[in-house]
Amino acid sequence: MSDTIDLTTPSVDPTAWTCPAPLRDQSRIVMGHGGGGTLSAELVRHVFAPAFGGDALAQLGDSAALSLGGVRLAFSTDSFVVRPMFFPGGSIGDLAVNGTVNDLAMSGARASYLSCGFILEEGVEMERVARVADALGRAARVAGVEVATGDTKVVEAGHGDGIFINTAGVGLIPDGVDLRPQRVVPGDVVIVSGPIGVHGVAILSVREGLEFGVEIESDCAALGGLVETMLAVTPDLHVLRDPTRGGLAAALNEIATASGTGVVVTEREIPVPQAVAGACAVLGLDPMYVANEGKLVAFVPREHADAVLEAMRAHPLGLESRIIGEAVAVHPGMVVARTGLGGTRVVDMPIGEQLPRIC
User: Fold this and answer.
1) What is the pTM of this model?
2) How far is CA 155 from the centre of its chain?
3) Among 18, 79, 133, 338, which is disulfide-ready with 166 (CB 3.0 to 4.6 Å)?
4) Low-confidence ranges of the chain (pLDDT < 50)
5) Burial group, residue 185, by CB count within 10 angstroms (0-12, 13-18, 19+)
6) All domains of the chain, ordered by start, with CATH?
7) Quick count: other Cβ atoms within 10 Å of Cβ 348?
């Protein structure tokens, strides 16, 4: 890595740095509260959930499964504040569609309609707004979802970061599909749909101007079609998650905690691209904690695992799917990785996000 930080340079002020994963005893919001880890969970559990209440919110999944007029719906909302807004493999516009579509897909639903709210900072170039809007529209058409309603707000210069986007989506959940972590049982097989850590490293490389010998492109993609392929094999999948903020480690810990099972994964079976592994080694990051935007992790009954894996590998977004572990009865609520040296290590829930502002 050619880039270095010279602490003697007058323009560098270490006192102005912030930590995305600070100490947990906080009286104010810090960056770690938006990282998808323990701080985020505590904020939701102790502030938002008691204030809002309701059985639907208590699900605390990627999307809420609702019944309306005898029809089962998935409903989700998400906000996107990624910096930079354009990166290798996508943009904030692509993320706004694919992130919400994927949240719905994790409930087994095919997204039908999206809302889209733009928060624009005064002074942002109209050309950039148009580029983001075009990217969002293209991503929606690829995902087969319609942007049905929206809103626009403008904030004063210095009170935003160019463009923020909020999207919400709805979709129908097919009969017989019940995807939630409480269905996970010991013996379930853990499958990941492809290489991990790509999106987070792609964002970091552009944000910090780092070069790793090869351009790393975000894996940003809509997973609805892949999920439909999996459900066509059997509707009896137990849970799906897209490991975005907090990466694979956060997703596995959330499922282990909610299901009351332990999870064991084998490190050498977890697909990590060489470029991502190299970048993480240089930067001191663990690929399991780095964000993804086009991957999913599935807990599948063992009797269906081989057939589901074969179907995933036949889909363009699941070509490199792999079995990485299983749910177990021991150490409930804990994720453990078997290392290449034959030992084991605990894979903790992250406190915050190693790389803030990645979605």
Assistant:
1) 0.86
2) 28
3) 79
4) 1-18, 21, 23
5) middle
6) 64-175 (3.30.1330.10), 181-346 (3.90.650.10)
7) 14
